Amino acid sequence: MPEFLEFRGVAKRFGAIQAVDDVSLEIRKGEFFSLLGPSGCGKTTMLRLAAGFEQPDAGRVFLDGRDITGLPPDKRKVNTIFQSYALFPHMTVRDNIGFGPAIARRPKAEIRTEVDRMLELIRMADQADKKPGQLSGGQKQRVAVARALVNKPDVLLLDEPLAALDLKLRQKMLIELDLIHDQVGITFLYVTHDQAEAMSLSDRIAVMNGGRIEQVGAPAEIYESPRTSFVAAFIGDTNFLEGRVRSCLEADYCRLAIDGLPEVVSFNDKGLRPDQPIYLSVRPEKIHISHDRPEDKPKRNFVPGVVEDVIYLGSNTKYWVRAGGRRIQALRQHDRYFLDEKPIRWQDECWIWWHADDGFMLDHFRRDDEALLAAPPQRVGD
Amino acid sequence: MKRSRFPIVVTVLVLAFLYLPILILVVNSFNPARFSGRWEGFSLVWYARLFQSPEIWQAVRNTLIIAVSVTAVSIVLGTMAAYALHRWAASRLQHVHYTMIYQPLVVPEILMGISLLMAFVAVGLPLGLFTIFLAHVTFCVSYVAMTVLGRLQDFDFSVIEAARDLGASPWQSTRRILLPMLMPGIVSGALLAFTLSVDDFVITFFVAGPGSTTLPLRIYSMIKYGAPPLINALSTLLLAVTLTAVLLSQRLANKKGQES
């Protein structure tokens, strides 16, 4: 599929802060695309560049093959859902939704039917004459969506549209947004700092950090094979293990030497050679934990350790295991909890193990990103 | 615990000090006695006399012409000033701008009056309705700017971006979104400007010319001719008009509309 909305070498600086730093990105037609990153990573600036609220210092923005870089917001077939909803407080729901068509001087009767259709879509036909002040957060959100969609934009831009809602409502709106996307078939560019939102909605995600894109890919790709330490640590949780390649095995596997651990076997899709330094990321849920050493199987890594922290999380339990001078977190899904014959407790000796395919070698590692991991303090006051 | 009577006593004294003279004036305006002091029953005789006086009508006409035109010009200038002050607040020059807008609120009126008079004389502008109009605009703009600025403080400018995003030109988004949302502030500023213009004596006294006597000036000259009961009636009417305007203005300023 060809690119539809395209950023080509875009940069934007605000004072001393380089908000967007030479970013190129292609978004396909009809796609639900998310920009995911922490606050200040430049994702909202990207969206504002697409909307026309900001002009890039360098680079171009294309929509459907046309250069739209210099166009003001009202000349772009792009509409925005604002985080604050930005509904017009002095107008009724009907007039809010009908604002775009009215500005475009469409016939009154046509506006009416269009607005009615939108009210039907967001299931608010009975609220048409209320003012925004009389609506709940979720309803305001839906009006904002309808007000943008009624203009049949080429791309719908969503700026953290769910951030102001409480958890339950957010989950509900998430499903609604997904349904709306399926119904209208418009390209969605969705900006969020919430990885769960991005994961569940998106066809593809671009993870941003410090004004740059760290990785672009489908949610599973981003989660399962993060390319950088930032992506691995920002999305979900992980363990970082650093070491070097000891020897290469046949069929894309290699042996790794990691300080304090027995030899580790890992998938080597990066074609690394012996003696090259590596950073391995292993997700906690991929690491199993038990009292007894499990049966030896090929391509499995076994590490003995001592349980240092146990965090009961309801549906699962997180264990922090001290192994060879480092702390490794493992997640265990429990099937029975109270009747467990040999529950794993604090200070127990245990074994942890993972499959060679479940560790991923990072292209890029930064020590700072370790701070993103949800590590419990090791001393009071840490 | 025994509560001190002191606060309540002070409150009553202050209120009496502030409002008793006004009350006496209002009551006396309904007293038919030529020299006030003795109550001779309720009467509207002074009001009737008032409406028959051509000088009064002339003064009312002048006052209204000035007040209406001053209000109209002040809300336009004041709103623009407030918008500029708020939207580009970061600029260093804006501090100077703000001070300039704020000055008329704190500078002594007599100083404003004298300086305006000197300015008009210097440029050779004949004193009259037009000079009064100019003088009133100089301070009314400030009041409008301050009320509109207050309204702008909690204005969410993403609605303007939303309007642009939905296809509105800069002018359309101003006319259909910004102005309607600022309207309570503008109207409240307008009422304030109107009241101040109707009321003003000191500055008007300096810049008025022959034939441009306003109501406050007329009242002052009537005191010199010695017609206190007429003044009482006139003042009561003036009080009613300005009080209504001020109350309206306050209600609009406090009204948050229906926005979230």
Structure description:
The complex is a heterodimer of chains A (382) and B (260). Chain A has 382 residues and is of the alpha+beta class. Helices cover 22% and strands 35% of the residues of chain A. Chain A has 9 helices and 20 strands. In chain A, the strands form 4 sheets. In chain A, strands 6-7-8-3-9-10 form a 6-stranded mixed sheet, with helices on both faces. In chain A, helix 4 packs across helix 5 (137-149) and helix 5 runs parallel beside helix 6 (167-184). The model of chain A has no long low-confidence stretch (mean pLDDT 89). Chain B has 2 domains: 1-43, no CATH class; 53-254, MetI-like (MetI-like fold, Orthogonal Bundle). Chain B contains 11 helices and no strands. Chain B has helices at residues 6-29, 45-52, 54-87, 93-106, 109-123, 129-153, 158-165, 170-199, 202-207, 215-225, 228-254. At the A-B interface, strand 6, helix 3 and helix 5 of A face helix 7 and helix 8 of B.
Could you provide a short overview of the structure?
The complex is a heterodimer of chains A (382) and B (260). Chain A has 382 residues and is of the alpha+beta class. Chain A contains nine helices and 20 strands.
